Amino acid sequence: MGAAAVRTVLGDVEPGGLGACDAHDHLFLRSPQLPGQELDSVAAAAAELAAFRAEGGRSVVQWTPHGMGRRAADLPGLARTTGVRIVAATGLHQAVHYAPDLLRELGDGDPDVLAAVFVRELTQGIGDTGVRAGLIKVAGGFHALDAHARWTMTAAAGAHLATGAPIAVHLELGTGVLDVLDLLCGELEVPPNKVILGHLNRSPDLEVHREAASAGAWLAFDGPSRANHATDWRMPDTVRALADAGHGDQLLLGGDTTTAGARAVNGGPGMPHLLRRVRPRLEAAVGKELVDRIVTVNAGRAFGVVWPG
Question: In which residues is Zn(2+) 1 bound (predicted)?
Answer without folding.
Answer: 24, 26, 137, 256
